[in-house]
Amino acid sequence: MTSIRLLIADDQALVRAGFRMILDAEDDLDVVGEASDGLDAVEQAKRLKPDVVLMDIRMPELDGIEATRRLLSHAGEHPTRVLMLTTFDLNEYVYEALRAGASGFLLKDVPPEQLAAGIRVVAQGEALLAPSITRRLIEEFAAATPARPTPPPGLDELTARELEVFRCVARGLSNAEIAAELVVSETTVKTHVARLLMKLGLRDRVQAVVLAYESGIAIPGAGR
Known about the structure:
Largest sheet: 5 strands, parallel
Order of helices and strands: EHEHEHEHEHHHHHH
Distance between the termini: 40 Å
Strand content: 5-15%
Radius of gyration: 17 Å
Protein name: LuxR family two component transcriptional regulator
CATH superfamily of the largest domain: Response regulator
GO biological process, one term: regulation of DNA-templated transcription
Number of domains: 2
Keywords: DNA-binding, Phosphoprotein, Transcription, Transcription regulation
Organism: Solirubrobacter pauli
CATH class of the largest domain: Alpha Beta
CATH topology of the largest domain: Rossmann fold
Number of helices: 10
Oligomer: single chain
GO molecular function: DNA binding
């Protein structure tokens, strides 16, 4: 079994030590480095090439959002996923962090098993958004979406079913939930998600959520 390589970026030494203790206890997780600020996180990520960076939002020198933007702008053949860590679920930086390329959010007070599970989800290329953060995100999109959004390039290449799946992804539904709603298998959903991401030129589901609301494909409060 290949271990998931992790970099912990947080300005509080006790927080880093606590996360390292929890994560090193997992057989498939390997903490390869720690960073105390955003600049250090970017440099270490370039050097260590971790699979996932646990990135605190508020750090000295360079905040987690700009650090994420810089880190992902230099992504090569070894894509690094960024999982943002925050103390509050109604953080005002949620929207900008996801636009910067973060693959999801976790609250710092999550149980250890949820922290480990969240890292595995992100390492597999999935998005990770707590329900409370998803609600906040949709509110941000509602305020930020232009009155006459422009359809994204590649949208006309989506099939009717892929468009349905796209809207479900925008609502924050998991593959299992989408499969249940559309009465198809999870494997079929995974195939549709992979195809729509490819056609729209998106890296992951988080980018799909951002694009769906910014382009008006999904409308806050519209349900299905």
